[in-house]
From TrEMBL:
InterPro entries: KH_dom-like_a/b, OsmC/Ohr_fam, OsmC/Ohrsf. It comes from the Bacteria. This is Osmotically inducible protein C. It comes from Cellvibrio zantedeschiae. Pfam families: OsmC (PF02566).
Length: 139
């Protein structure tokens, strides 16, 4: 896996993935930014949500669950001072579908957290407390 991050101007950086996709990152105005893109730590949090959501959907699809929507809401706390790494992250999955089996949704979230999500496992190894919850909505 590869990526390149190139400085644009002020606190703006353009990140490009090895697969050719680009994302603009920027800082807040009080740090030389213009607020035109996501903050790097927001990007990390979104990556965690994407990684785990990918796992959950893959597991539920293989379990033949009729999922019509999957949403992962993340809440993070950071340490005071500099550096200010994440200390706690709560991931709340909202899975919508037709006659979804709770045991399958619970299993998908647990497997992502404990076995498949590289981002989650890496952050936890670094001391971040990650908690998970889910709710099921009928489509």
């Amino acid at each position: 896996m590869q990526a390149v991050v190139k400085w644009v101007d002020g606190a703006q950086f353009l990140a490009e993935s090895g697969s050719g996709h680009a994302v603009l990152m920027d800082g807040p105005p009080d740090h030389g930014g213009r607020n035109t893109g996501v903050r790097p730590m927001e990007m990390l949090l979104m990556g965690l949500g994407g990684c785990s959501s990918f796992d959950v959907m893959s597991i539920l699809t293989k379990a033949r669950q009729a999922v019509t929507d999957c949403r992962c809401e993340l809440q993070a706390e950071r340490a005071e001072g500099v550096p200010s790494p994440f200390t706690k992250i709560h991931m709340h999955f909202i899975v919508t579908g037709k006659e979804l089996k709770e045991a399958q949704v619970k299993r998908a979230v647990e497997l992502s957290a404990t076995k498949y999500c590289s981002a989650s496992i890496m952050l936890e190894a670094g001391g971040v407390e990650i908690t998970h919850a889910y709710e099921i909505r009928e489509a």
